[in-house]
Specification:
It comes from Chitinophaga caeni. One of its GO terms (molecular function) is hydrolase activity, acting on carbon-nitrogen (but not peptide) bonds. The protein is α/β, with parallel strands linked by helices and 428 residues long. It has 13 helices and 16 strands. The protein has two domains: 121 residues, Urease, subunit C, domain 1, CATH 2.30.40.10; 287 residues, TIM Barrel. Helix 9 crosses helix 10. The longest helix has 27 residues.
């Protein structure tokens, strides 16, 4: 039996070796690099024609039309240079196959789990990561799910050996998933159940979260607590505003409760989802509450909304002065993020405003705008070079990408399979 097991284990080990994609994290930048003759989209609304950008030691050292080229020269004539795209809300690296439970590590049991850290579960070897990187997505905010308070998210860079290497900004926020305050009619609802019961239960859950934060404040204000409470300790950053409270909600009444959280606790609140945020855009702007807009390619929530409302919401928030960014849903779907932004540019936003919604605005919402999000001197060299408009799936072909100055691989499992079967059928 031992011999049989050894043979099987050996075969599995050999298969695992050959199944690994030959894509390795890039080494640190070893010398200055200058991209020349490019159309540079800074990310803050500026476009520099026939410009250059230099970077060294992972940092941008010069941007403009009169940059002295040093080190390795990358000629990007006729091409476009962009900041690396940022995914603001995803379970990337926390799941690999949705239908295989063993590959899912994004949910914890229980309702209040602020001490759960998504970062330590992040799988830097996920085959999905390469498909995002090859489309120009270089950073992602990895978010846990489940319960009322799901835990902490962290921003990762998408070219790493492990989660420690990947960490770009660890534990940047706590995620509260507000119960839905709208009950859809359900002919299969069990006898005795009612819409009023469901709404009361939702309001009770919201009240329990408020009570948790009040207790946490009392605990943190105490000079020396009798016992250490890990859950209360985990939300300390909310009270000193070093962390953000990301509240996942869609409807107006839910977002008004989110505003109330910001007022009562003086939290730095971000709304995630915000399907109906255009209806209270003025209130959100007055209270400085940003919005991470969920999947634009979806149906409206309310029956009487315009069918193209999700496409127009970004423009309406822009007009109202609300800081917003655009997200997608899930993990592998994030590779189309820039094309979602392209849709928003067809429904009111300018091309540069749409680009900001997935670069600089996203960096501001996640609290990393001092180091990334735009191509400015002193920021990390997170740079993408494309043959065409990165918001247009027809013309965008990413030729080079740099994360903190490292020229990262644009290969992925899908490209390798494409080449494999071209070879098989004599098409190479």
């Amino acid at each position: 039996m031992k011999k049989i097991f050894s043979v099987i284990a050996g075969c599995c080990f050999a298969t695992a070796i050959h199944a690994q994609a030959t894509v390795y994290p890039a080494p640190a930048q070893s010398g200055p690099i200058t991209i020349v003759n490019a159309t540079v989209h800074v990310g803050n609304g500026q476009v520099l024609n026939n410009a250059s950008i230099s970077f060294d030691g992972g940092k941008i050292t010069a941007v403009g039309s009169n940059v002295t080229a040093t080190g390795k020269i990358v000629d990007a004539k006729g091409q476009h240079v962009y900041p690396g795209i940022i995914v603001p809300d995803s379970d990337l690296g926390l799941t690999e196959f949705e239908a295989v439970r063993a590959t899912n590590d994004f949910r914890e049991v229980g309702e209040l789990n602020p001490s759960v850290r998504s970062l330590v579960s992040y799988n830097a070897d996920s085959k999905v990561i390469g498909t995002l990187r090859s489309n120009g997505i270089l950073l992602a905010n990895v978010v846990p799910e489940g319960g009322l308070i799901s835990g902490t998210s962290s921003v990762v860079q998408l070219d790493a050996w492990n989660w420690e290497d990947a960490a770009y900004k660890a534990d940047n926020g706590i995620h509260f998933r507000m119960p839905r305050l709208m009950v859809r009619s359900n002919p299969f609802r069990r006898a005795g159940g009612s819409s009023d019961d469901a709404l009361k239960r939702a309001m009770d859950q919201i009240a329990s979260v408020k009570s948790f934060f009040r207790d946490a404040k009392a605990y943190l204000d105490a000079p020396k607590p009798a016992e250490t409470n890990l859950k209360y300790e985990a939300v300390k950053g909310l009270f000193d505003r070093s962390q953000k409270l990301f509240i996942h909600c869609e409807l107006v009444k839910e977002m008004l409760i989110a505003v109330d959280f910001a007022k009562e606790f003086n939290f730095d609140v971000v709304i995630v989802g915000g399907t109906d945020s255009h209806l209270i855009a003025k209130i959100l702007a007055e209270n400085n509450i940003p919005v991470i807009l969920a999947q634009p390619h979806s149906l409206p929530v309310m029956q009487d909304d315009a069918v193209d409302q999700p496409y127009k919401t970004a423009y309406e928030l822009q007009q109202a002065g609300v800081l917003f960014c655009i997200s997608n849903e899930g993990f592998w779907q994030q590779r189309n993020l820039m094309f979602n932004a392209g849709t928003a540019s067809a429904y009111g936003l300018s091309k540069e405003q749409a680009l900001s919604a997935i670069t600089l605005n996203a960096a501001k919402v996640l609290g990393i705008d001092k180091t990334t999000g735009s191509l400015e001197v002193g920021k990390d060299a997170n740079i993408v070079i494309s043959t065409g408009d990165i918001l247009d799936m027809k013309s965008s072909i990413i030729t080079d990408a740099f994360i903190q100055g490292r020229n990262v691989s644009l290969d992925n499992k899908q490209k390798q399979l494409y080449e494999r079967y071209k070879y098989k059928y004599g098409l190479k």
